[in-house]
């Protein structure tokens, strides 16, 4: 069993390092740099965990020698949470506070030798991975219905969901152990599950094609083929959508969802998702709706005949539930607050 365990860990470490190397050239990707950086940190953290969680390390090495590896292993839960957010939230940006959280968890795990006899510290050690797994689950579930990219909805959900299942199983196994260490059979199951997840990811990242993690087609070397005619039902849905979101001002409905809009148009969700994604080029339903709302808000703020209308009234009328989210979304898109935008537009006119 020891040889099998060592072989699986060697294969896992090799795959994780290859994945980090495959991601490295994309670290300045225009839209997905957060996915790249969190993916690199997660891959390298799991490689360290593969060594520190081995029966040899846990049973043969002293606590001070194991401590740095324990810290990295514990902080891999933070890396997983950040990776889940980066994958599913296109507006997510890495901040210094995220690094601070990772560093704090690492420091806590790396000082295990100082408090290992203190039972509240042991409980916290087990609670940290569970907490970040739940945060990762929230990052997956919250934007799931608004995601318009079918490939991303399928395979990234499998990867992140599988990662969460793995983390929870490992926490349960360690919590059920008398000394917190994995028995040889549990350690073998641990590395086998990680290898399966890493193998799935590696098949996507290391395959000889340009499209992969970001679902983007490579630049064509030859003139692109003539596109096939669109589905007549898609055309009908696109026309109905244009009417509903144009003259019907469907975007002004507070809390509008993809399911709700599909019901109003009398079409399945998958078809509406395809029309908005492939026909209009949007990747997230909420971003699509907010774009329409902000466009209408800009038009009205620049209209001299509405100069006396309060910003709050316009925000509510275009579909925002309150002025706070409206102000943040408006400034993120234009670089100006609504009031500043109105003053500048009316002065220019």
UniProtKB/TrEMBL annotation:
Pfam families: HTH_18. The keyword Transcription applies. The chain crosses the membrane at residues 6-24, 36-57, 69-88, 100-121, 127-146, 158-176, 182-203. Residues 235-344 form the HTH araC/xylS-type domain. Keywords: DNA-binding, Membrane, Transcription, Transcription regulation, Transmembrane, Transmembrane helix. GO terms for molecular function: DNA-binding transcription factor activity; sequence-specific DNA binding. It comes from the Bacteria. This is AraC family transcriptional regulator. It comes from Roseateles saccharophilus (Pseudomonas saccharophila).
């Amino acid at each position: 069993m020891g040889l099998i365990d060592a072989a699986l860990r060697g294969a896992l470490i090799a795959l994780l390092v290859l994945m980090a190397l495959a991601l490295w050239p994309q670290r300045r990707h225009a839209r997905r740099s957060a996915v790249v950086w969190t993916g690199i940190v997660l891959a390298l953290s799991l490689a360290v965990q593969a060594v520190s969680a081995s029966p040899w390390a846990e049973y043969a090495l002293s606590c001070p020698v194991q401590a740095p590896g324990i810290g990295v292993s514990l902080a891999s839960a933070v890396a997983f949470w950040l990776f889940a957010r980066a994958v599913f939230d296109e507006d997510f940006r890495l901040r210094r506070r995220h690094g601070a959280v990772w560093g704090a968890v690492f420091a806590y795990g790396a000082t295990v030798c100082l408090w290992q006899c203190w039972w509240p510290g042991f409980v916290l050690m087990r609670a940290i991975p569970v907490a970040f797994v739940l945060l990762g689950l929230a990052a997956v579930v919250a934007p799931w219905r608004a995601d318009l990219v079918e490939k991303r909805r399928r395979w990234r959900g499998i990867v992140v969901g599988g990662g969460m299942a793995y983390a929870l199983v490992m926490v349960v196994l360690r919590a059920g152990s008398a000394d917190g260490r994995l028995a040889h059979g549990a350690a073998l199951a641990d590395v086998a599950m990680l290898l399966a997840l890493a193998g799935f990811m590696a098949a996507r990242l290391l395959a000889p094609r340009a499209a992969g993690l970001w679902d983007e087609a490579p630049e064509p070397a030859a003139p692109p083929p003539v596109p096939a005619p669109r589905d007549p039902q898609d055309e009908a849905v696109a026309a109905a959508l244009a009417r509903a979101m144009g003259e019907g001002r469907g975007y002004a409905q507070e809390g509008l969802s993809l399911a709700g809009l599909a019901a109003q148009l009398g079409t399945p969700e998958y078809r509406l998702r395809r029309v908005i994604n492939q026909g209009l080029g949007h990747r997230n339903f909420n971003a699509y709706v907010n774009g329409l709302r902000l466009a209408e808000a800009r038009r009205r703020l620049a209209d001299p005949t509405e100069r006396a209308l309060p910003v709050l009234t316009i925000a509510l009328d275009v579909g925002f539930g309150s002025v706070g989210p409206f102000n943040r979304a408006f400034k993120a898109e234009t670089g100006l607050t609504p009031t500043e935008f109105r003053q500048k537009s009316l002065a220019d006119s």
